[in-house]
Design goal:
Elements (H helix, E strand, L loop, with lengths): L3 H32 L1 H6 L3 H6 L1 H19 L4 H14 L5 H17 L3 H22 L6 E13 L2 E8 L12 E7 L5 E7 L8 E6 L3 H9 L5 E5 L14 E6 L3 H13 L6 E7 L8 H10 L3 E7 L26 E5 L2 H13 L4 E5 L10
Helix pairs in contact: 1-4, 1-6, 1-7, 5-7, 6-7, 9-10
Protein name: nitric oxide dioxygenase
Family: Belongs to the globin family.
Catalytic activity: 2 nitric oxide + NADPH + 2 O2 = 2 nitrate + NADP(+) + H(+); 2 nitric oxide + NADH + 2 O2 = 2 nitrate + NAD(+) + H(+)
Length: 374
Amino acid sequence: MLSEKSAELVEATLPAVGAAIGEISELFYQRMFAEHPILLRIMFNRGNQANGTQAQALAGSVAAFASGLLAGQRPDAMLRRIAHKHVSVGVTSGQYAVVHKHLLGAVAEVLDVSDEVAAAWSEVYWLMADTLIGLERFLPRGQQDHRVIARFQETDDVVTFVVRPVDGPVPASRPGQYVSVQVPLPDGARQIRQYSLSGRTDDALQFSVKRDGEVSNHLHDHAPVGSTLRLSQPLGDVTLQPGDGPVLLASAGIGCTPMIAMLAELAATGSPRRTIAVHGDHDQLSHPFRAGLAQLVAKLENAQAHVFYEWPIGEWPAERTGFVDLRGIDVPADTTAYLCGPVPFLRAVRSQLLAAGVTDIHYEVFGPDVVSAG
């Protein structure tokens, strides 16, 4: 809980910090990487640093946590998401002190705040950091070498990898989780990216990769059957939860990967739940797991699939042409909704669900969580 004096100072300065937090977070990363360049090479996503989304997510998470403290409402879902991502890339508790040094240094440099204000925001930071450290303590850590035992071309730009540990058993996983994959790049950097598990296998892990960015391109071009990949333990807090009520699995593009894993679990267990599967893509040829979606839905006694294409090939229903639109689909108010896809898709579908009275909404976002960031 934030002390009374600090709460007053944080509330008074939150508008100024919020207005400048983009500049603060950008300066923070510059300072930290200047002193610790290895972090950018082996832990942080260079692409997200270059396009600014990581800075935006950091800014939003700190502001959201501070606002929550003042309102007496801790943003638990955001904190769980951050904790899982931290563990997946190997963040340690000792590195929070490094972040504190450079983040508070950036605040002081940008806003020229008093020592009292700096101390108040330091208190906010350590409350958030200590919460994350506590959450991360109970998550499975460690990386392990896996052998690629099969790979399948799903579409022109999506490949599915099936991998098995070189030593030891296959780690436990849940539908909706992801693994972090670390690869060596030509410049010597070892970059990490997260990929959702995309199927249900008992003796292996399966994940799918869209060709997009330096790590994904490397996997497409340099990870044949027989090669070795370094994977984290399966992580991620957005997983299929047990229950009897209706479930919505909504995705766009490569966001179908965790949804297809959840759908496979429902089919494998013969779930009687009403299941509404919704997917949006450019066209039939760019839709990964198109046949698998139809097959899994057919196995369930109470399931429907609704597919939207922006530019369908051949004849296609007019009401299913364009972006995903739930307004023409019966989604009961007691539905548990799982979403995955680009940020504009997540925001649009979440708004449609809230308008329909659906409030139990869970989402997975690839990359920094700028949805929680606002």
